[in-house]
Amino acid sequence: MNSLARQFGGPSGPTGYLATWLLARGNAAFNRWLAHELSAAASAPATVIELRCGPGIALHEPLSAYPAAAHVVGVDPPAVVHKSARRPNAPATADGRLSLITGDIGTAVGYAPADLDLACPVVYFRADPARELHRAREILAPSGMVALGYQLPQNMPPISQRNFPEGGFTLYSDDQVAAVLQQAGFTRPRIRIFGDPGHPGGWLALASPTHS
């Protein structure tokens, strides 16, 4: 199970396809809710960049929420991820509303400035999430916003609570997520909760760049 857990941070090979399928299935409802929240918080972004876009479920949601004008860019290093993301989003790729990029944040510079940076799995799976979010800030418009989706450890399935740390990933509290965002140059986030606050299905942190 540890090898599968590690695949969530960087899918590759046959096990990588399984990991992306599990992400797509497990996070679909959360991603639909997240897109609904973002369409209210950021009503008309011209450019949305999703960092570590995974299997493309979250990409589909802003494409639906912003059907008229937004250009959505999905960025992820593993090529296996883009094969999974391309299939459900083929029409948007064909008409130029969606661009899929294999690489890291630096490869998205050509699409900057973004009005909205969406980053769902960045906190768990990066050794230095503050550094990655700081780089995300650099491609964000001054009036833009970062949206960070995550789960608190106590609300994760027991198997994830056990295997993610054993796979080398860090699980964060809400205060630690806020600290990471502030360290990266964002304001203290506004938090929204998916589902029953007593048993939430996910958290969304919205933050803006600080300006000195």
Keywords:
212 residues; alpha/beta; Rossmann fold; 9 helices; globular
How would you characterize this protein structure?
By secondary structure, the protein is α/β, with parallel strands linked by helices. The protein is globular. The chain has a single domain (2-207), classed as Vaccinia Virus protein VP39 (Rossmann fold, 3-Layer(aba) Sandwich). The chain has helices at 2-7, 13-41, 57-65, 79-86, 90-94, 122-125, 129-138, 158-166, 174-183, and strands at 47-51, 71-76, 98-102, 114-119, 140-150, 190-194, 202-207. Residues 1-7 have low confidence and may be disordered. It has a 7-stranded mixed beta sheet, sandwiched between helices. It contains 9 helices and 7 strands, in the order H-H-E-H-E-H-H-E-E-H-H-E-H-H-E-E.
Q: At the fourth CATH level, what is the homologous superfamily?
A: Vaccinia Virus protein VP39
Share of helix, binned:
40-55%
Tell me the CATH architecture. Answer: 3-Layer(aba) Sandwich
Residue runs with pLDDT of under 50 for 5 or more positions: 1-7
Shape: globular
Please state the structural category: alpha/beta
Question: What is the H/E string?
Answer: HHEHEHHEEHHEHHEE
Mean pLDDT: 78
State the end-to-end CA separation: 45 Å
Give the domain tally: 1
Under CATH, the topology is which? Rossmann fold
Write the layout of secondary structure elements.
Layout: H1 2-7, H2 13-41, E1 47-51, H3 57-65, E2 71-76, H4 79-86, H5 90-94, E3 98-102, E4 114-119, H6 122-125, H7 129-138, E5 140-150, H8 158-166, H9 174-183, E6 190-194, E7 202-207
Parallel strand pairs: 1-2, 1-4, 2-3, 4-5
Antiparallel strand pairs: 5-7, 6-7
Helix pairs in contact: 2-3, 7-9
